[in-house]
Design the sequence.
């Protein structure tokens, strides 16, 4: 484990608690869910917010969506331990509602700090909530699976927007689209080496 990176990520979690980011969410959630995985990962996946199981366990993407994500990773020749997974919002919204624009805006700087620490080659957004900050005004149905270089602050990031695994679980027509987009990732990654 990269001790220096872990210490920097732990400081972000401390800052979020100390600055009382989204106090209503913090009060209704069990805990802060920062992220999980390889701190030297080439790929960072970003979802929207923790769900019920994630809130209880303190880890992102461990419910049904997480199982589907793990299956897709395996089908693409990757393992969860090789990537880093997080969400734009770090507390579970009540009743699994969508995170609000204000909640996403409040957590955005902390997400950028995470990316600056991990320094991935590729950022993969899962769903429209994390996608919209990298691609303002775009619709996921129109740009899914299309990688682009995005300049965020001083960071240049290679971002691939994908549908959220939960959407694919509930909408069978999106399932194959997500799998097809996902299976292109290793090839895209190899072109960046």
Sequence:
């Amino acid at each position: 484990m990269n001790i220096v990176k872990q210490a920097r990520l732990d400081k972000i979690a401390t800052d979020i608690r100390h600055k009382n980011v989204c106090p209503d969410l913090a009060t209704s959630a069990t805990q802060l869910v920062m992220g999980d995985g390889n701190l030297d990962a080439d790929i960072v996946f970003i979802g929207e917010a923790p769900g019920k199981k994630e809130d209880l366990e303190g880890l992102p993407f461990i419910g049904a969506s997480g199982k589907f994500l793990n299956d897709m990773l395996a089908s693409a020749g990757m393992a969860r331990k090789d990537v880093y997974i997080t969400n734009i919002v770090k507390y579970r919204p009540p009743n699994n509602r969508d995170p609000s624009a204000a909640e996403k805006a409040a957590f955005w700087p902390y997400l950028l700090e995470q990316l600056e620490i991990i320094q991935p080659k590729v950022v993969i957004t899962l769903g429209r909530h994390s996608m919209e900050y990298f691609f303002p005004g775009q619709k996921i149905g129109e740009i899914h699976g299309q990688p682009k270089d995005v300049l965020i602050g001083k960071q240049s990031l290679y971002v691939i927007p994908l549908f959220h695994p939960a959407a694919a679980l509930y909408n069978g027509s999106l399932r194959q689209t997500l799998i097809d987009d996902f299976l292109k990732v290793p090839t895209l990654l190899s072109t960046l080496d």
In short: The radius of gyration is 15 Å. The CA atoms of residues 65 and 170 lie 10 Å apart. The mean pLDDT is 94. The beta strands are 36-37, 43-47, 84-87, 122-126, 148-152, 155-162.
